[in-house]
């Protein structure tokens, strides 16, 4: 079986060493030394002033919305994982969908202004597949209308734009360190901001609002992460550049093998350093997608309709986004993970080309 993704596992002896130290200290969670060390190393690696390690990328989005005090309508993308929208609804706000750019698949800034009403408080956009949003155009609109900007950077670890981390854009950026992400801590995530006041707010919100043992500032939640999760992050981070190189060569290998496959690829825009976190292909029709997916499955190969359905199509959402609706019907992510072999990639390419050349078999 070739799954669509597999978590990267570091050297087990290194992880065991961290676990032995946790046993020795008997300090398992609550802002322990490994959480602090991971935060420091992540800031150093990503070249950031502030970052908080939290329990996952979903709660990171919820903390961001809460810390900014958002209410009313939040303009967002229909083309993302469900957590982008559900976090908005969970925080009592209304998602208002703006369609995506047909080439980059990120929110179309030219369509944002028409969706702004007197109830709009923010824009929440996703750097989908690690493709940077049109950050400058979005900021211009936000400044003009007094809106906050949150970026869901769940896929964007390590991405740089115009000489700085993609996480520096917007009021708050979030990331996911889920086991299937290119950098992971089993479960985990982060909130990133340049604003020390927002940072302090999110640090309080992360820990029940505790401001010392006996004082609470506002209503908080438990968004902390544990020493065990931080230990995994500390094992994976030093290997990140090796993971990245491997992904890059697998990505290029797919591009070569699939040169005759009639599919489109999302454009990466102006990204300086891409992270190759997914390999999405856009078929010419949903019929070809479904027969390709079936043929892969019959050969023990996983693939994922990432993203389907569009987030404007959920039971609890609405909004017309024809470009996203169309892409959602035609996009498929192929297997991509550290241990995926060249021969396996060749087999995947052969199956896809066979379906293209013999659509009725
Ligand atoms: C775009 C996007 N946002 C948010 C999340 C949520 O992250 P987590 O699984 O860490 O809660 C994911 C997870 O896959 C995601 O892909």
UniProtKB/TrEMBL annotation:
Q: Which UniProt keywords apply?
A: Pyridoxal phosphate
Identify residues that carry N6-(pyridoxal phosphate)lysine. Answer: 181
Q: Which GO terms describe its biological process?
A: polysaccharide biosynthetic process
| Protein biosynthesis found in the keyword field | no
Q: Does the record's keyword annotation contain Transport? A: no
Gene Ontology molecular function terms on file: pyridoxal phosphate binding; transaminase activity
**Protein name (record):** dTDP-4-amino-4,6-dideoxygalactose transaminase
Lineage of the species this protein comes from: Bacteria, Pseudomonadati, Bacteroidota, Cytophagia, Cytophagales
């Amino acid at each position: 079986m070739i799954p669509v993704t597999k978590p990267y596992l570091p050297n087990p002896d290194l992880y065991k060493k961290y676990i032995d130290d946790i046993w020795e200290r008997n300090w398992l969670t609550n802002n322990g030394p490994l959480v602090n060390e991971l935060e420091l190393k992540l800031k150093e690696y990503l070249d950031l002033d502030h970052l908080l390690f939290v329990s996952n990328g979903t709660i990171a989005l919820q903390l961001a919305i809460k810390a900014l005090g958002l209410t009313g309508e939040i303009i967002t993308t229909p083309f993302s994982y469900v957590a982008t929208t559900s976090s908005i609804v969970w925080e009592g706000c209304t998602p208002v969908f703006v369609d995506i750019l047909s080439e980059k698949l990120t929110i179309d800034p030219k369509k944002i202004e028409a969706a702004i009403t007197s109830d709009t408080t923010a824009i929440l956009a996703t750097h989908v597949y690690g493709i940077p949003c049109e950050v400058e155009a979005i900021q211009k609109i936000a400044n003009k209308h007094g809106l906050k900007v949150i970026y869901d950077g769940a896929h964007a670890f390590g991405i740089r734009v115009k000489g700085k981390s993609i996480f520096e854009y917007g009021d708050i950026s979030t990331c996911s360190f889920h086991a299937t992400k290119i950098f992971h801590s089993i479960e985990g995530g982060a909130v990133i901001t340049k604003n020390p006041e927002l940072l302090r707010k999110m640090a309080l919100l992360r820990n029940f609002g505790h401001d010392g043992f006996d004082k609470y500032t506002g209503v908080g939640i438990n968004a902390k992460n544990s020493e065990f999760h931080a230990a995994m992050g500390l094992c994976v981070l030093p290997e990140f550049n090796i993971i990245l190189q491997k992904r890059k060569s697998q990505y290029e290998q797919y591009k070569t093998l699939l040169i005759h496959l009639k599919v489109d690829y999302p454009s990466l825009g102006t990204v300086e350093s891409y992270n190759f976190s997914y390999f999405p292909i856009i078929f010419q029709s949903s019929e070809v997608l479904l027969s390709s997916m079936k043929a892969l499955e019959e050969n023990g190969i996983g693939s994922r309709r990432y993203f389907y359905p569009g987030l404007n199509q959920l039971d609890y959402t609405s909004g017309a986004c024809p470009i996203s609706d169309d892409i959602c019907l035609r996009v498929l992510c192929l297997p991509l993970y550290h241990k995926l072999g060249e021969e396996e990639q060749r087999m995947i390419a052969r199956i896809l080309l066979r379906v293209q050349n013999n659509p009725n078999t």
